[in-house]
Design a protein that fits this description.
Length: 244
């Protein structure tokens, strides 16, 4: 059994401690038995076995708190995050292992044309609290959009069905999973043109000794991609199509 890392002062990566979003299919999510699943988890499990290190995954930590723990070296990595310049100064990113389209979801009884981000001006929207959708969308939303942050990402569609907002900004698969789980496919319209497509990467603490493993992880991700295994791993975690 590998020794547990004792905070940011440990010098050897014997245990990779990871957090992430708990409802972000196909990247990371909790299944019906509250077990961590997702393509990010599959990658890390196989990588950890190959390199003989322990893997500890806790998706129950709220995102904002997990980010603070990452900054302090209390955990080693986030299993899936978008790139921002601010984060890049503080953390170390891996190669992308997935891509997530950021979509606009509307109430099916109150739709409007969205061809680009500026079409959201003068409409009230919502997005999950605590995360980032990349520099462009984050800055544009802050400067030009009337948008609120929902603390409960899994219930964010309630804001649409109750007509409290005109749209919800959400990752494609995250949104589809919410629609399927809530059985509201007739009530929600997804605007098919994505606002942006964000690469998804592992994000490591610079205070973690496991940061030194990132080049090996990059090589592993590249191999999975080149052999087609990455696509197959991702497909097994895609949310089921919404059922009416």
């Amino acid at each position: 059994m590998a020794d547990a890392i004792q905070g940011p002062n440990a010098t050897k990566c014997t245990t990779l401690r990871v957090s992430g979003a708990w409802g972000w299919e196909p990247v990371t999510y909790l299944d019906g038995q509250n077990v961590a699943r997702g393509v990010a988890i599959d990658i890390l499990q196989e990588f950890a076995r190959q390199n003989r290190i322990e893997l500890e995954v806790n998706l129950d930590i709220p995102w904002t708190r997990a980010m603070l723990m990452l900054a302090n070296g209390e955990i080693d990595a986030m299993a899936g995050a978008y790139f921002t310049e601010e984060r890049d100064k503080e953390f170390l990113y891996s190669l992308p292992f997935a891509s997530d389209d950021i979509m606009v979801f509307q109430n099916a009884d109150h739709t409007f044309v969205v061809n680009e981000t500026r079409d959201l001006i003068n409409h009230r929207g919502a997005r999950p609290q605590g995360g980032s959708y990349g520099d462009f969308l984050d800055h544009y939303a802050a400067d030009y959009l009337d948008i609120i942050f929902s603390p409960t990402g899994n219930r964010i569609m309630d804001l649409l069905t109750s007509h409290r907002v005109d749209y919800v900004m959400l990752g494609r698969y995250d949104g589809l999973a919410n629609i399927a789980n809530d059985h509201i496919s007739r009530e929600i319209h997804m605007v098919e043109r994505p606002l942006v497509a964000n690469p998804v990467m592992f994000m490591f603490s610079r205070k973690s000794p496991c940061m030194k493993m990132v080049p090996k992880l990059d090589t592993f991700i590249h191999h999975l991609d080149e052999t087609g295994r990455l696509t197959k791993m991702t497909e097994t975690h895609l949310p089921a199509p919404p059922q009416n």
